[in-house]
Every structure is written in structure tokens, then in C-alpha cells.
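Quick note —
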Amino acid sequence: MKWFRGPQPDDEKPIGGGSYNKRGLGNEAFNFLPLNGRTLGFFQHPSTIALERIEAGFAGEALNGVLAVFVATDPENGGQRIVGWYRDATVYRHEQPSNDKRRNSFGYFLRTRTAVLVPEPRRSFNEIPSRGKGCFGQANVCYALDDNGHPKSAARWMDEALKYIDSYDLENGAREPESDVDTDIEETLQSTIEHVAGYQSNPRIRRAIEEYAMKRAEKRLKKLGYKPKDMHKTKSYDFLCNVSGAELYTEVKGTQDNGNSVSLTPNEVEHARKHKNSALFIVHSVKVKGRRSPVVSGGKEVFLRPWDISTGTLKPRGYVFTLSRAQEE
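Predicted structure written out below.
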């Protein structure tokens, strides 16, 4: 699902979750629906939640301060990806009743006031193994501890997941659902720029150009001795560089056009405005051969460092207006 806020015309059911989700709407469909500042979570489970496998030796009925991570099947590429998480959550041993009709009066196992939903285009963490020890297997829950209350030795992916979650600083679809389309808007704008200039473009071509530009940028940054670290999966910039002991945030863009105009997400603009130690690396005038399996070559590089976003022209292509509390009343 995209939203996990109940049934939507183009987002009706969770994928997976057993036979129930095939017949009806699973409780999981409401896992990121805000309810008066709280979010209630559910997952199919055959019995009670083993809280002692979250905190060793715990024997109570409700455990506070838990980080609960939600994963879901990737319908296009297979495997599982992290879709979101609850911070500082309360997890209950037994299902709790709910009479809230906004979520079909479904029960819940988790509750939080701090939910993060990764927008669908941003769901990049796919390091969850499908087989072997330390993975989900056929179950819908995977604990950090084994049956004896010891950390699982064969679950390195959990450590990587924690690093991903702790470093994530991109859009939160639970707080701002409209942010789910930010990357789509950026891609559409860049494709339009290229179409107007007479170039072919589609999502495959755009992804190929982006990957090509990232490789070109990384190669150039390494050659300059900037020690680039790829951050694009969790941050609003692509590379974190070290220039004589100082940080340099580098944004990378690739285009078939002449590079005079590039598209940016709201987060990218906000980050560039806040950080004067930013740089913009553009690979423009690239050549693309093929549409289904595009091959990118050539191109020219422009490296703006420092990048002062105020010296260029920003043109907004849409706004989200939120009513004040007084207007809502």
C-alpha cells in the first residue's frame, strides 16, 4: 500500500498478510492513519505478542519505548522493504479493542504518537532476507531476541535497518501525505523539460540518467579527494563530502537537456537554503539509447561549489494550502 490510511481508490489492500487480506480489508490498512495525535498499529498474529523477546525478562502486559518497524512486500520487484516505523511505541501482549469507526473499529497491538511512513518512491531498504535464521520466514513478526532472550546472531540486517532509520531525514508520509508525490513531481518536471527540448523520456530513462549522473559525480568527487559518502537513500542530498575537514553537501542532477534548468524537491530546496556549504553537480547533454533498457553515455559536467540557491531562479509548480484552526472551525 501507499498510504496505510484505510481503503483508497488506487490503494485498497495490503499485499501479503495471509488469506484474510485476500478476502477482505486487513487491519494493517490503517496502520498510519492519525487519530487525534495517535497512531494505532496491527499485524496478523496467531497468538499473543512475546514482549519478553523485545525486552529480555519482561513479564508485563504492555511494554513502552519500543521501536516497531513495519515491512511489506514489494509488488514490483519482490522481497520485502521497510515502509515505516513507530518510535517510542507501546506494544501490548494482547490485542486491544477499539471503537473508532475511522479504522473500522479494528483492534490493535501497538500505539504511538511518533509514526514515520516512508513515501512509496523512497522505500529503498530491501536488505531483509527471505530465508534463513533471523528473518521473517512465514511469520508476520520478527523479534530482535531469540527464544532465550538473547540478541539474534544471524540478523545483521536489523543493525543495518537501525542505521537506515536513524539516518532517515526525508519525507514523512504519516505527517504530510502529500509528500508521497514529491519525487513523482520532480521526475515529471524533469521529463517535461527534456520533452520540450525534443528528447524522449520515461521513468526507466530517468532512473538510468540519475544512476549515470551519480556514478559520474562520485568518480569526479573521489578524484578531487572529497571522500564522497552516498546519502541519497536517507537524506535530502546525494553525497556528503569532506573538503579539508569541512562538510560539503552535494546534490546531483542528470539531464539530456543543456542543464540550464533542473527539477528539485521541496526538501532539496529547503536543505540548500539552510546549508551554505552545499554544492550542485549537473551532468547535462547526456545521450540515451533504447527505451526499455536505456544505455546512457556522454554528457558534460557542471560543478557549482559553493551552490548558493538564491542566485538562481526558483519557479514553484504547485502549493499545498493548510487551513488555520480558526478557519477549520
